[in-house]
Amino acid sequence: MNANDYNKILITGGAGYIGSVLTGLLLRSGFKVRVIDNLLFGGESLLGYLSHPGFEFVQGDVCSSDDVSKVLKGITGVVHLAAIVGDPACKKNPELATKINKSASEMLCQMSIDAEIKRFVFVSTCSNYGKMDDSDSYVDENSSLNPISHYAELKVGFEKYLLALGQKDFAPVCLRFATAYGLSPRPRFDLTVNEFCRELYLGRQLEVYGEQFWRPYCHTRDLANACRLALMVPAEKVAYQTFNVGSTNENYTKKELVDLILSKLPHRKDNVTFVVKKEDSRDYRVNCDKIRKALKFISVYTVRNGIEEIIMAMKNGIISNPDSKAYRNL
Ligand SMILES: NC(=O)c1ccc[n+]([C@@H]2O[C@H](COP(=O)([O-])OP(=O)(O)OC[C@H]3O[C@@H](n4cnc5c(N)ncnc54)[C@H](O)[C@@H]3O)[C@@H](O)[C@H]2O)c1
């Protein structure tokens, strides 16, 4: 199977943190790419692709059936990323989150089936696991889901919807992404690794709660590569399947993340305090062996690499204002 067999891909949310990395990867891999995005955080992330002959952009809304029917024409596969992303953003605007993350997602899926599109990659989240019963063990794709936010509930709901479709000649796949870190044409500094790096690099006080809580982490470029593989492998390997995306070796507690960052910024040791807060009790350590075995997916980057590149981008002035509103989802 090569890129030409699935040659025109629709990426919803392609201007976002992960979507803008995926767009570049698919274009470099020989796919044609059409992005639909309503540019909640601007569109500069796509500037580098505008002159590429394989790239098309439609400013549109996945909630609009007119926009969706327009962008599905001639498409062979969909990667669905557009969403209200993260617990805080969904908490702030729950109706809009339901409209986009549930209703529009269902409509996009139905219209993709009607358009005889064969591959549908849905980007879900490991947040679906919520809080593990036993924090000494690992969760895998067969573990029970325990969503503890509206964001995760909507992701779990749409996964269930997709996996129950049973539609022949349609291969939906759910990719449960680890928490992302690293650079992107649309940087985000509201995600743990990137945010902690910014705060400590800038010499601010960093209050860390839930220091013992586990979470899996994965670089934006590796996450994009998982989408590429999910598009390219034969349908029988992915149809109606769920995969955790990350590496079993790349689970960290927040305390471990802080220690890794401090190993690069040792003079900031006194800037960190650990506090008790009940705010976010997500605690999950994730086994990602299924995607490694089934799709031969390997994470190339580690959190250590991500920390180095984020600090470097601030140090050399490439990112001069990491506090920019454009770099966070709230
Ligand atoms: N970033 C992470 O750590 C992470 C982890 C797990 C899963 N995910 C999932 O990956 C996907 C992308 O996340 P991200 O970090 O790139 O977020 P992001 O907010 O940077 O990107 C989302 C994009 O979707 C677009 N969008 C939102 N509503 C839209 C609409 N109605 N119509 C068209 N476009 C719309 C936004 O403009 C934005 O460009 C999301 O589905 C998210 O749930 C992300």
Overall pLDDT score: 95
Would you state the CATH class of the largest domain? Answer: Alpha Beta
How many helix segments? 11
CATH superfamily of the largest domain: NAD(P)-binding Rossmann-like Domain
Could you explain the architecture of this structure?
- The chain has 330 residues and is an alpha/beta fold.
- The chain folds into two domains: 3-181 and 218-248, Rossmann fold; 192-214 and 250-283 and 301-327, UDP-galactose 4-epimerase, domain 1.
- The chain is 35% helix and 18% strand.
- The chain is built from eleven helices and twelve strands.
- It has helices at residues 19-28, 65-72, 87-92, 94-114, 150-163, 192-201, 220-232, 235-238, 254-264, 289-295, 303-315; strands at residues 8-12, 32-37, 55-59, 77-80, 119-125, 171-177, 179-181, 206-209, 214-219, 241-245, 251-253, 272-275.
- The strands form three sheets. The chain has a seven-stranded parallel β-sheet, sandwiched between helices. Strands 7-9-11 form a three-stranded mixed β-sheet. A two-stranded parallel sheet has the order 8-12.
- The termini are far apart.
- Nicotinamide-adenine-dinucleotide binds next to β2, β5 and β7.
- Residues 12-13, 15-19, 36-41, 61-63, 81-83, 85, 100, 123, 125, 177, 179-180, 186, 188, 191, 329 line the site of nicotinamide-adenine-dinucleotide.
Question: What attributes does this structure have?
Answer:
330 residues; alpha/beta; Rossmann fold; UDP-galactose 4-epimerase, domain 1; 2 domains; 7-stranded parallel beta sheet; 18% strand; binds nicotinamide-adenine-dinucleotide
